[in-house]
Amino acid sequence: EARASEGKSAFDFPEVTAGVDADHHVAEGYDADVLFRWGDKLFADAPEFDPLKQSEAAQQRQFGYNNDFVGFIPLDGADDHGLLVVNHEYTNEHLMFPGIVTVKEGKVEVAPATEDRVNIEMAAHGGTIVEIRKVDGKWQPVLDGRLNRRITSKTEMTLSGPAAGHDRLKTGADATGTRVLGTVNNCAGGVTPWGTYIMAEENIHGYFKGTLPEGHAETANYKRMGVPGGSYDWADFHDRFDLAKEPNEPNRFGWVVEVDVMDPNAMPKKRTALGRFKHEGAESIVAPDGRVVFYLGDDERFDYVYKFVTAGKYNPDDRAANMDLLDEGTLYVARFDEDGSMQWLPLVHGKGPLTTDNGFAGQADVLIETRRAADLLGATPMDRPEDIQPNGTNGRVYVMLTNNTKRKEPNAANPRVDNAFGHIVEIHENDGDFTAEAGKWEILLKCGDPSVAEVGATFSTETSVNGWFGMPDNCAVDADGRLWVSTDGNSPSDTGRTDGLWAVDTEGAARGTSKLFYRVPVGAEMCGPCPSPDMTTFFVAVQHPGDGGEDWEGFGRPSYYEDLSTRWPDFRDDMPVRPAVVAITRKGGGKIA
Ligand code: FEO
Ligand code: CA
Ligand code: CA
Ligand code: CA
């Protein structure tokens, strides 16, 4: 095989032409088959999806909304049989419920929320675990698979780790500070080396309403997290989302959630040791000494890059021995220095400024207010850290920084003011050891259109007009160590482009060359890129197709415009647009080249 070290791209597929239309498009020679759509049955007894007869009970047995992270967990080591795990990040009411949006005198109005509608939204959030099998080269759902499961914003979970049981996590419904209902805004995620499913809680602020009592101790903490965001009306029907009624509930969100997929009754666990912020994802790798390292982005303008190193070591021969590895370890935040070196600063109570004098009575406070602790340590404010992916084949780590149009002061790792298109930082951990407390970094790519000089993009000259992208969001490293990047927002109306999945060379003379492999229908963003371990399938998640996307300045808030030029994926007048997971395979089989 020709490899990048010879100056040639590591990717052979014929590039897709950039553009935007009602359908999705994949490279010639490949098939893109819709595998799960919002509303699809996960159990034989689930009702067929009917957009006019939605109910909470039905949604709890059907595939949820706005698929984001996708992971594949093989069953019995098989390549053609496993569990697909999928996050359902948020809901777009204006796209979900036919007839609730009206335009009066040029003003868009959304019908007031009802309790039924809110409960459907809550059931459409969370995650799906579903068995799939490849038959004659095509993936099929296994309805009624023993491990099939929906996790929603009402699923009972435990809080574990150093902050569990702390007074700041106690509520009227939970005097122990260890039990919480549900998870929200699960954006990216991860699959651990021991085969559990990680759901990261990102924009949690939007679910809360109401005001804290005057002078309440959590005022500054919630302000730093944007709580209450008031994007959803859940608080009108569920008191726990109303700050005036349950002032501690927001402290029970913003964590990393771990789910044991092999036990459909296992209670998901919110792992407080990994900190509380707007968690984008949690991709992991086993270090040479057996400890496991999780890379964590906090997706907000001027927030930080983190990693968590377990105290214990991964045991590949005893799954049960790994099940609480995420309760003990060290959380670090990154400082990227101007000379290309970097430091991982430990967030440990009593170290440096993380003291009682500064309002941290113990490690629980450091974790509940991770952002403030990281501020005090002098971490480097970044341009919205999204997915972060370690690469075991070259010891490097790729950090997606999606954009930051509010940046006025550049720093070396975020060198562009008004960074509209984002960039990718590559970390080289010292000695290739992912547990290292110091390393080096460089910029792999400054994104955007390289033909516009002012943009300052750095794609290689081999990159075609179809190959450049902006707004890197999710990414994946395949079994051959190749980088794939998916985008969110690479579709300003004047560019005639939409989001998609790009293959990016990182090695040799081809470094910085990018090629378009797949693009989404109008209004959608591209999430979840998940290569199967044998590289014969790429699972991708098409999120919010048909969304007008006019108003994302306060992100986390759904906009209320619908692009009626697409009815993807059903193309039926009686069916709304539906987010869906797509399985991409090579025609006639074989590896994705
Ligand atoms: Fe939900 Fe940071 O993207
Ligand atoms: Ca994301
Ligand atoms: Ca990823
Ligand atoms: Ca996104």
UniProtKB/TrEMBL annotation:
It comes from Nitratireductor indicus C115. It holds the Pfam family PhoX. This is Twin-arginine translocation pathway signal.
